[in-house]
Amino acid sequence: MSLNETLKAISDPVRRQILESLKNQSQSAGEIAAQFDLSQATVSYHLKLLTQVGLITSRKEKNWIYYDLNISVFEEILTWIYNFSKGPESSNSEGGK
C-alpha cells in the first residue's frame, strides 16, 4: 500500500486506539471490539482497513482471528519522517536565516 493510504488509516482516532491496544500483545477481534462502544461490524471494518494497509497482520487459530502490529510498516514511516531532518534541504534552511 502507498504511504498516503497508510497515513490516512492512521488519521482515524479509532484506528489509532486499536494500534495502541495492540502495542503490547496480540488480541482477538472480540477482545479489540470489547474496548469500544461500537458495533462488531464497525470494529471489523477498522481492522480490515488496518490489515489492508499493512499496519496490522492477522492469523487464525482455531475459531479465532488474532491481530498483531506490523512493526516494519512503522519503521518505514519513521524512516520517511527522519529523512526530513537531514540532507541538503535541512542545511539550506539554516543558511537562509
UniProtKB/TrEMBL annotation:
This is Winged helix-turn-helix transcriptional regulator. It comes from the Bacteria. Residues 1-89 form the HTH arsR-type domain. Keywords: DNA-binding, Transcription, Transcription regulation. One of its GO terms (molecular function) is DNA binding. It holds the Pfam family HTH_20. SUPFAM superfamilies: Winged helix' DNA-binding domain (SSF46785). It comes from Paucilactobacillus nenjiangensis.
